[in-house]
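Predict the assembly for these three chains.
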Amino acid sequence: MTRRPYVRPLHPHWWLRDRRQFLYILRESTSVFVGLYSAILMNGLIRLSQGREAWQSYLDALSSPLGVTVQLICLAFAAFHAVTWFGVTPKAMPPILIKGEPIPACTIIRGHFILWAILSLAVLIVLGG
Amino acid sequence: MSETITIRVLRYDPDKDAEPRFDDFIVPYRDEWVVLDVLAYIKEALDPSLAYRGSCHMAVCGSCGMMVNRQPKLACHCFIRDYRGQLVTVEPLDHFPIERDLIVDQDGFIEKLSSLYPYLVTEHDKPLSEGTNLQTPAQLAAFRPFTQCINCLLCYAACPQVALNEGFTGPAALAIAHRYNRDSRDSGEELRSEITDSHHGVWDCTFVGACSEVCPKNVDPAAAIQQTKISASFRWLKARLLPGGTS
Amino acid sequence: MDVIDTDIAIVGAGGAGLRAAIEVAEQDPSLKIALISKVFPMRSHTVAAEGGAAGVAKPNDSFDLHFNDTVSGGDWLCDQDAVDLFVRTAPEELTRMEHWGCPWSREANGQVAVRPFGGMKTERTWYAADKTGFHMLHTLFQTSLKYPSITRFDEFYSTELLIEEKRCIGLVAIELRSGKLVAFRAKAVILATGGAGRVFPFTTNGAIKTGDGMAMAYRAGVPLKDMEFVQYHPTGLPGTGILITEGARGEGGLLTNSDGYRYLQDYGLGPPDPWPRNKAMELGPRDRLSQAFWHEQQKGRTVKTPFGDAVNLDIRHLGEKKIDERLPMVRELAISYVGVDPVTAPIPVRPVVHYTMGGIDTDIDAATPLPGLFAAGECACVSINGANRLGSNSLAEILVFGARAGRSAIAFAKTVPPGSDRATKAKAEAAQAKIRALFLNDGTESAPALRRAMNETMESGVGIFRSEESLRQSCAVLADLRTRFNQVRLEDRSNVFNTDLVQVLELGAMLDVAQTMAEAALNRTESRGSHQRLDYPKRDDEAFLTHSISSYSGGDRPAIGARNVVITRSRPGERIYGGGGS
């Protein structure tokens, strides 16, 4: 007898068996909702080009309970997406050295959150004003 | 009887078993024991046929990578006190063919590593009479984290892309390539880019980040791969936009 | 049986084996090299060396100073021609490692940094943080991938040398993944199989360090030299025996007893201040420090831990930043394995078996008395380490003598034809029959029980301090164990990765090696370096300025002979450390 390496098949629910893999798949799946929201926005542009009535019905659809729910879900997934990506940004960039010491990962992540808050605030002010 | 702990170990003997099965062993609980000590106890006192790898017992030789309760761990660095009162399941590293019990076939990794010119590539051989190269502590710091890889392959077991794409070069090998690319003494990045920039190089990576989380030596292969993706993108652009670009 | 033809077979793919392989590949790319190891190269125990590698580097240093430190550190048992060659070659070998990419730690100006080390008069230890062996091993392994003439046979356990007309013509090994026996026919064989610390129960050595190569050579009639000299490293973690590098003391660490007192000043190593100071106190040689622990233990001044007596290694005063920069692994190991963060508390440590100064008898060219057989690294005894190795000489030694073994093997291989088919087959089949017998015979002796008995008797009889009584006792036990080993029971009869078989074969090797250690120690009725006899506390240069030569006689005990030490320019003197040493 001799060697007979056994290859274990990948578990069909491999991403459900491990928290880390589950979060990864969740992060990847957020793209579906980000895509969905982009489609909604594109539809808005089309409706706008079709005149005032079409645009109004689009706005009505958005503010209907279903519309609001869909947008909230998209917002939640987009926020999750942003948070997870902020978490990995320190890895995605070459280390920036200050006085020979790399900037700590948490500083980079915090910087992203601050920038996010500032931009969101700016958008709100512009739209609100 | 004093405290015990139950260890469930995946067993596979190609001479006898059509496929793997599990054996349970009840072993004494000792606060200072790591999983490797438990396996040694089992082999000595309960079942001499248990096969596993292990040597240094200090988390540097990289022999004893295995799955402990579904997480990739070094058996010599995984204390059973962290699993007190639980069933501890020990399996061979995920995503590798099982040779026997806890021993997996690592040849694939060695082949991938070998393909990456994992050594200092220089334009000229520096004569010994010229002494050593100069390298400042900052230049050393730029690649030093990526020199810490002990080839334990926990990252391969953690990476779903390794499981889904057989050809994927994988985290450790790419981190070692990055280690040389970032070394101020090296000029082999172009050479390595044949592999690193290819589909089965960095582009099979979807940035799961699990490799860096499980690395016992804080190598951060995920960072190495993302940084290589940036360099690879620049190389791609340069080849297309600049006159004299080759491909 | 498969016969693999090669020009040069190298057994062991740690630092010495890899260095030898690269040397052969560079010097003559036409030669076929088989690099055979029972583990993957990066698992070899070179990986665990921490502190550094010695080689003259500074303008205020010289070959003479390195020579003097090494010879006096070895208590004048070193062959001085070999030490001369070693100290002159070490710097270029370490430079070559730099050219191959070894990430040596650096000074601010970009020069390679050197640190002080025990028994060394000036700073000459090159280091890569506190993972020097790890970085050297991976640098060598990765560099070896460059050479197509090197074929690796990873996870092949070598069992026996093939001999034809008093020449080594190859070896036999088991391919672990299939269980098949393979013969390697080679014009020259280099053994680089490392030490045998595992004959002791409490050691820094990994599970793989079982003296296989030493035993293979010994059984083939090649003598083992100076086997009674076993180094205890003064700072291992209690319980596991994990090594805490001498670099910790090189950086300024202190050793204190249960009273918080720097006890080394009571053993000829003081005065304690100023500190740090080379060749004094905590930077004395390893034999003296380990012996001082034993005396403190007798006086009841050690610290009690759940895993036995210990003393404290204190590096708190270095501060977190320096500890993380220079000694990151020390911190990591102490936190993980004894639950102590050295930034805030002293690390409990005790002496632990670390290194076999003795080994396969080789000359300055790494050649053994058996034509065609060469040896380098810890498995060999050239001897540059004498009765006590200085820390950081061995990482340089594996390079210097690994490369030398490679060159000697080339020169030899060019002068001889390969071994004959007939002899290769016949000898290999004889080796196979021995293994098969293990599978077919129902032995009665349990291998783990024999191993425990061997470990116990080595610790109790052949430890830091020895006496005629303890040694006689151990010699008798070991002779009995070797007889019982003939009836050893192989429990696992399968083929693929039969690690039970490997452990049984390793035990056989260890018993042979242990016996040479005990018998040579019994024969040496003096105290020198790491060999300390309670009944003969003085060094005796009249009778024992000689190497012990243990030869396999076919009987149940080795014959112990002697050979004069090579003295070229340093007459034996007193070893002076502490205040008188600088």
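The longest strand of chain C covers residues 347-356. The domain at 427-558 of chain C is CATH 1.20.58.100 (Methane Monooxygenase Hydroxylase; Chain G, domain 1).
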